[in-house]
Amino acid sequence: MGMEGIGARVARKEDKRFITGKGRYTDDMVVPGMKHAHFIRSPHAHAKIKSIDTSAAEKMPGVIGILNGAQLAEDAIGNIICGWMIHSKDGTPMNMGAWRPLAQDTVRYVGDAVAIVVADSKTQARDAAEAVVVDYETLPVVTSAIEALKDGAPQLHPEAKNNLIFDWEIGDSAATDAAIASAAHVTEMKVINNRLVPNPMEPRAALGVYDEGEDHYTLWTTSQNPHVARLVLSAFYNVAPENKLRVIAPDVGGGFGSKIYIYPEEIVCLWASKRTGVPVKWNSDRTEAFLTDAHGRDHVSTVKMAFDADNRITGFKVDTIANLGAYMSLFSSSVPTYLYATLLSGQYNIPNIHANVRTVYTNTVPVDAYRGAGRPEATYLVERTMETAARELGVSPAELRKTNFVREFPHQTPVIMCYDAGDFEASLNAAMDASDYAGFAARKEEAKSRGKLRGIGMSCYIEACGIAPSAAVGSLGAGVGLWESAEVRVNAVGTVEVLTGSHSHGQGHETTFAQLVADRFGVGIDTVSIVHGDTDKVQMGMGTYGSRSGAVGMSAVVKALDKVEIKAKKLAAHLLEADESDIVIENGELKVAGTDKSVPWFQMALAAYTAHNMPEGMEPGLKEGAFYDPSNFTFPAGCYICEVEVDPETGKTEIIQFVAADDFGKIINPMIVEGQVHGGVAQGIGQALLEGTHYDAETGQLLTASYMDYTMPRADDLPSFQISTTETACPSNPLGIKGCGEAGAIGSPPALINAITDAIGNNDLTMPATPQRVWAALGSAK
Amino acid sequence: MYATNYHRASSVEDAVKLASSNDEAKYLSGGQTLLPTMKQRLAAPSDLVDLRHVSDMKGISVSGGSIRIGAATTHAEVAKSSEIASACPGLAHLAAHIGDPHVRHMGTIGGSIANNDPAADYPAGLVALNATIVTNKRSIGADDFFTGMFDTALEDGELIVAVEIKAPSKSGYAKFPNPASRYAMTGVFVAKHGDGSVRVAVTGAGSDGVFRQADMEQALASDFSAGAIDGVTVDDSELMSDIHASSAYRANLVKVMAKRAVAAAG
Amino acid sequence: MANVSMTVNGRSVSGQCEDRTLLVQFIRENLGLTGTHVGCDTSQCGACVVHVDGKAVKSCTMLAAQADGSEVVTIEGLASGGELHPVQAAFREHHGLQCGFCTPGMIMSAVDMIQRHGGRLDEKTVRQELEGNICRCTGYHNIVKAVLDAASKMGDGTKVAAE
Ligand SMILES: Cc1cc2nc3c(=O)[nH]c(=O)nc-3n(C[C@H](O)[C@H](O)[C@H](O)COP(=O)(O)OP(=O)(O)OC[C@H]3O[C@@H](n4cnc5c(N)ncnc54)[C@H](O)[C@@H]3O)c2cc1C
Ligand code: FES
Ligand code: FES
């Protein structure tokens, strides 16, 4: 590894602008003639729109236009779609109801967009919005998925009887039932995976600009995947054809999944810009973000895990009801199915698995992928069940896991996944050592003397990243391919530009992608620029989510670098009158191995562009592109151990220590990988301990719609983390990378709940484990 | 935020005059409650009278056991005042645990008590300390000042100028913050006064704002120790219940925090 | 309409705005200094923290008119003569930022915190002092490290606020 190559702990290039206040986010953009939008949103969770009266509002100062769903329909703007087809077990396609970017007849959740006001200033737009009179006829409301499935429950969409979107299964039901029937022990649980609000700190924003002269649209937006946005805006929403639409996602302040989707506001701002003739900017305030950003999780499951007399798992049966909210968001159907149930084998050898999943409409914010997307839900089930089983069977949690670990690879699970590599015991041992697991009993005693209840819990997770081969996901219902593209341009002076379809919104691509080039050509990372987030610059890409930038995005860069290297060596061989196979690239020079003959990198590049002296038949220039389609998912895995102290008087949990031992395969920049783990673990701790999303069951109002009621993890809620990595290379991509963006959020919740339930001696505890809940579980209610 | 007119007052008289010029005028002190409320369009004062430049309303003086805190004194100033720390450590501790550093740099004692948020910290402190609230018109005892949730004895346009406190012999405050907002989910201030009487005031828990816990006051008057509260039962029928804490849980917290406040008072 | 004048990052500025204009709007929209961010509407996230007359405040919870006559420093004014402030440098060195959105407010808060506590900061205090700053990316681990490192480097040079 060079100083700035693969594996180097390089400080980030992009930081320079962020620490000096020079980052450029969507809401920072200003274009000439720009005006401001405010969305009028439904205050009701379920209602018919009887009329919209804009007459008074139109006369208000600064108002340019007020547009509603009828006008949107006039212009044939399409429905918002879900891009992953799932079939129910009876073979019928999922029951998708219509989602209009501006509701026309019916609103189905509090926050559903009804109209847009465009005015000279944001305040004027909001002032005018208050003068718009929308007459609603309220309808009965249902917020719980279980209630929504019952006969007689309020119906959201005519397409979905009893609000059932699909009833899907995976695995062998009969064989799993048989395993349970003949088991020596069966552990049964009901497990709730709480609904979460993603809350990237930058609220969503959009700036739509229609250029009449060119009949061309530009959208600046807070997106994790601008190319996918352009694709669906043109192919499905009929806003503009791709060649007439440029989508730019500049600096984006975090996403965590919530900025994958194309939301009503982006569609409407673009469309409204044409309708009103002015550039239209909207930015969400935080309450709007709570009410409209896709939420995450929200599962209720029952599980049965069967063991034989040797404590080996013989079967695992899962029944899940997943709340998808009022409409089907872009990838919503894939999250509780292929991103979830395919991971139910965990790190274990389980011969029989069956999962049944029902997804349901309710009068709540649409639910889609949020950091981890399906894998946290699966991991939580598996690891809570394992811990519970260990307690019931009277064996140590580590022992039970070791008894059941997969140890031979490749390993085909009964639920599609084929694990390619791993060493689960290595990470378990690393975590147990780092946490001084053996010394826990003494620490518990000591805590007791201070009146505190100490507990320890572990979680051994495996997840699947780099959602892969396009043909495979296509056969499972995906509407897009999941490859990635890259282009490497070597300029005439030898500097390098890498164009990637991946998108960075905190992940540090400008540094890590440059490290790949530095590693390959021995040039400094400061001579390498990473270009991303603009559909006019990068031809096509699938964006960043599912921890795919490393495993897929970087692999595409590697493929392009391979091609550049071949051409550069050919050219150098020609210049040096040597054999191509003798050329090596070192320290910014192309050398003839074993001689002192060399040509500097920049001179070779210049030669490629002067084209005065090139090998026979070689085209001038030095620029290569590549598309990379992975051959398999990647499987990051690891072990997390959490130690807590509970104050029995108040029920408050303090995290004393959090240990993570992850296997991410090869690591490009350990500093950035550690940062990803810290952030992921913090979100997992947030889910387990702090973040509760509450709806009023009667009215469908979101009760936790600001930081006054939704508990964001703050610095004093969290400890410093002890993290380490073990490495088994991933055989499925050229760099051996597995991905690290989501593991922290996937692996941590069960570790924490296992620790708290261990501390309080009561296994019946629902996330988030707030002080009130823990106190109640301690049974001290009078 | 709705449109408003900003005025900067230079003196107490000036402030009162500016405020009286319009029915819908409001004083603006630290703005840490009023401005968030206005941003959410939940308040729409026609005029704002800024008190931050009224020098008579700022600052802390302590002499011979009498403490006077100007209404426009910030939480940060109270928290770091060495005079308060020695005369009434419980109050310094309380001020240091209001909100976050940025809020403490702006928010003031006058604004906090005028607002009388049922989850605010100062009301518990002032009731337990039997403070006197000095306005441009009169002096009001804390027991009479806090009249219910978001409600005080202040009349329209009446301006709090200062808060006066007799230094107690012992004082302690224990707060269990709401995990999300960090306001008090339950906060208990315990003060032992020169005459031997004890006052225990609870914030964050009562469905009608700050209240005194008479049983605890009695128990502590005869034995000022955490153990003395053990036998007291907290009635939860008048306590708040919300998604963060049931009334039963709050009743538990009242007792636990009271014991911790006594322990802190030493 | 209010006429406001103040010193921002050492430069005298003045402008006209509605009385209801928040300081953060004035900074971002009138002055075009977009490093100061808005991350919430309830005055809790701290993305908007700037220094007014030497103290960290939330610029979303102060009117521009209130800051009339004040000295304001934003993230853009922290580095002097092209040299990063030690807190900025520490955030980069310790990877105390990911998406960068909370970062300006974090850094301004950290500078204020170090000014008040000097070299006496420890991890627990730093975490408590960050109550008014929310970061969704970093899990705070590296932010805490950066603040402690900057505090120790600045230690001797910093004046500890008088007790
Ligand atoms: C993020 C955040 C966290 C917070 N956490 C806490 C907490 O943990 N505990 C807590 O107690 N508080 C908390 N607060 C509230 C904070 O303490 C406020 O500063 C305080 O409640 C109001 O004081 P102010 O000076 O800001 O008043 P303002 O907001 O200026 O005014 C509040 C009200 O009082 C009136 N008023 C102000 N001064 C006077 C006066 N002299 N005479 C008459 N009326 C007057 C105003 O007209 C207004 O109606 C928090 C606030 C925020 C933004
Ligand atoms: S924007 Fe000021 S605190 Fe959130
Ligand atoms: S770095 Fe993204 S919110 Fe802090």
Q: Per DSSP, what share of the residues of chain C sits in E-state strands of 2 or more residues?
A: 15-25%
Q: Tell me the distance between the termini of chain C.
A: 41 Å
Unreliable stretches covering 5 or more consecutive residues of chain A: none
Question: Proportion of β residues of chain A?
Answer: 15-25%
The radius of gyration computed from the alpha-carbon positions of chain A, rounded to a whole number of angstroms, is 27 Å
Oligomer: heterotrimer
Q: Can you tell me the CATH topology of the largest domain in chain A?
A: Aldehyde Oxidoreductase, domain 4
SS content category of chain C: alpha+beta
Count of individual beta strands of chain A: 28
Descriptors for this entry?
heterotrimer, B: 266 residues, alpha+beta, Uridine Diphospho-n-acetylenolpyruvylglucosamine Reductase, domain 2, Uridine Diphospho-n-acetylenolpyruvylglucosamine Reductase, domain 3, Enolase-like, domain 1, 3 domains, five-stranded antiparallel β-sheet, four-stranded antiparallel β-sheet, 11 helices, 14 strands, 33% helix, 24% strand, globular, C: 163 residues, Ubiquitin-like (UB roll), DNA polymerase, domain 1, 2 domains, five-stranded mixed β-sheet, binds flavin-adenine dinucleotide, binds FE2/S2 (inorganic) cluster, Molybdopterin-dependent oxidoreductase (chain A), AldOxase/xan_DH_MoCoBD1 (chain A), molybdenum (chain A), AldOxase/xan_DH_MoCoBD2 (chain A), AldOxase/xan_DH_Mopterin-bd_sf (chain A)
Description of the structure:
Chain A has 782 residues and is of the alpha+beta class. Chain A has 20 helices and 28 strands. The mean pLDDT of chain A is 94. In chain A, α10 (375-393) runs parallel beside α19 and α16 (548-576) packs across α17 (601-610). In chain A, strands 3-5-1-12-9-10-11 form a 7-stranded mixed sheet, sandwiched between helices. A 5-stranded mixed sheet of chain A has the order 7-15-14-13-8, sandwiched between helices. Chain A has 3 domains: 31-139 and 201-254 and 259-292, Aldehyde Oxidoreductase, domain 3, CATH 3.90.1170; 377-463 and 634-781, Aldehyde oxidase/xanthine dehydrogenase, molybdopterin binding domain (Aldehyde Oxidoreductase, domain 4), CATH 3.30.365.10; 483-628, Aldehyde oxidase/xanthine dehydrogenase, molybdopterin binding domain (Aldehyde Oxidoreductase, domain 4), CATH 3.30.365. Chain A is globular. Chain B is α+β, with helices and mostly antiparallel strands. Chain B has 3 domains: 5-50, Uridine Diphospho-n-acetylenolpyruvylglucosamine Reductase, domain 2; 58-166, Uridine Diphospho-n-acetylenolpyruvylglucosamine Reductase, domain 3 (2-Layer Sandwich), CATH 3.30.465.10; 170-265, 2-Layer Sandwich (Enolase-like, domain 1). In chain B, 33% of the residues lie in helices and 24% in strands. Chain B contains 11 helices and 14 strands. The N and C termini of chain B lie far apart (46 Å). Chain C contains 5 helices and 5 strands; from the N terminus they run ββαβββαααα. The longest helix of chain C has 15 residues, at 103-117. In chain C, β3 (49-52) and β4 form a beta hairpin. Chain C folds into 2 domains: 2-76, Ubiquitin-like (UB roll) (Roll); 86-154, DNA polymerase, domain 1, CATH 1.10.150.120. Chain C has helices at residues 23-30, 86-93, 103-117, 123-129, 141-154, and strands at residues 2-8, 11-17, 49-52, 55-58, 71-73. Chain C has a 5-stranded mixed sheet, sandwiched between helices. Chain C is of the alpha+beta class. In chain C, α2 (86-93) crosses α5 (141-154) and α3 packs across α5. The A-B interface holds A 123, 127, 130, 287, 649-652, 690, 692, 694, 703-704, 707-712, 770-772, 775-776, 780-782 and B 1-2, 40-41, 176, 179-181, 243-246, 248-249, 251-253, 256. One FE2/S2 (inorganic) cluster (FES) sits between chains C (97-103, 135-138) and A (201, 253-254, 506). One FE2/S2 (inorganic) cluster (FES) binds at residues 38-40, 43-48, 58, 60 of chain C.
